[in-house]
Amino acid sequence: MIPDEIKTLPVVAALVEVLPESVSAGKLDRGELTLEVAAERIVEVCHYLKHEQKFVRVSTVTAIDWYPEEPRFEVVYHLHSPERNQRLRLKCKVPGADPEIDSTTGVWRGANWYEREAFDLFGIRFRNHPDLRRIMLPETWEGYPLRKDYPVTGDRV
Q1: What is the CATH number assigned to the segment(s) 4-127?
Q2: pLDDT digit string (tens) for 133-153?
Q3: Which of the four, 11, 30, 56, 98, has the lowest number of CB atoms within 10 Å?
Q4: In what order do the strands lie in the sheet with 23-29?
Q5: What are the residue boundaries of the structural domains of the chain, listed by start?
């Protein structure tokens, strides 16, 4: 549910009007706006935010592992609008079994390496990514080291 205090913010009001089922929750904490977006609508939301609301820069795409909760993962996008001097955080919940979400590289080319990093360290697959492969670890590495259930002792490849 979107709290009344943020429903009137221009970017939230416009987004809810144009894509009404895309935002499920939100909060404003210490002047930072965070919106929970339906994972299946992330590309549509990002496209709108870039082209209509001037969030022309993605400064981070990362993930959070909430193991053992389900949905297990949250993919987090930090957006920036230099023209408006405004920042926005988007969060999408992704299940633990076969974690996938659409790639935003078609919206921001800069999302490429961030999504590869989330894939490499968390195992979250970004559908339609142009080059989804490990970026930090060797291709032969087994597992995803930032998952909370990843073993911290033993041999590594």
Answers
A1: 3.30.460.80
A2: 999 999 999 999 999 999 887
A3: 30
A4: 23-29, 32-37, 86-94, 73-81, 57-65
A5: 4-127
